[in-house]
Amino acid sequence: MCEPEKGNNVCNILTNQNEMPVFHIQDICKGDKICDLSLQFDQEDTCIIPHKKLLPGEKCNVGSQCYSGKCDECRGQCTGFLESDTCSTNEECDVGLYCDISKKCKLWKELAGECDVGIECASYLVCNNKKCVLPGSVRIGEVSTNPFACSTLYAAEISVGKTVCVNGPTRISEEACTGYCWYKLILPDESVLKVSEPGECGKDNTGESYCPRGLGDLKAQIEVVRR
Length: 227
Description:
Layout: E1 10-17, E2 20-25, E3 34-35, E4 45-48, E5 71-72, E6 77-78, E7 97-99, E8 105-107, E9 126-128, E10 131-133, E11 155-159, E12 162-165, E13 170-171, E14 180-186, E15 192-198, E16 202-203, E17 209-210, H1 218-226
Antiparallel strand pairs: 1-2, 1-4, 3-4, 5-6, 7-8, 9-10, 11-12, 13-14, 14-15, 16-17
């Protein structure tokens, strides 16, 4: 079947067959260029130079596009370094691996595995108190070094070097939003920690600007559940 001639930079050609749009992806992108498939369905795509290096599994044409410098040209995908390969960054290691302090690709650690930073844990876990744990698994009042491990996603330092999970912030008052909004965190001993955040103002039905509710406010929690 003959295709209409296109410029050398068009890699996804649109034709019509029986009044239906049909695409024909052409392997014409050279060097560091890849076919940009991010446009609308009814638009032809062109060869572009990626604005960043590509991770293992992302589409590539040549190794220089990839963090690892390796492109599987048969599959058209970047491949990462394997376990025990020498590395300099996490992005160079294959999926399921990270670059450890010894500059070797190591397997992600599973639930309850020991860790120092989050990248050592499997993608569905976070590092908390030097253990890989499920996000949201630590209850209010329990020690936590990572707010994402808390059931509320909030933690506060209650004494030097001791951080615990706390309830989400509640709005102190329905005051006008003037650059910063003030909230309070209620600590496990029922003391109150006052915190401020840059004001991302909401508006009421009169057009007045107010600070939004905090995640600890009951009405805000109801709204989240409804979504």
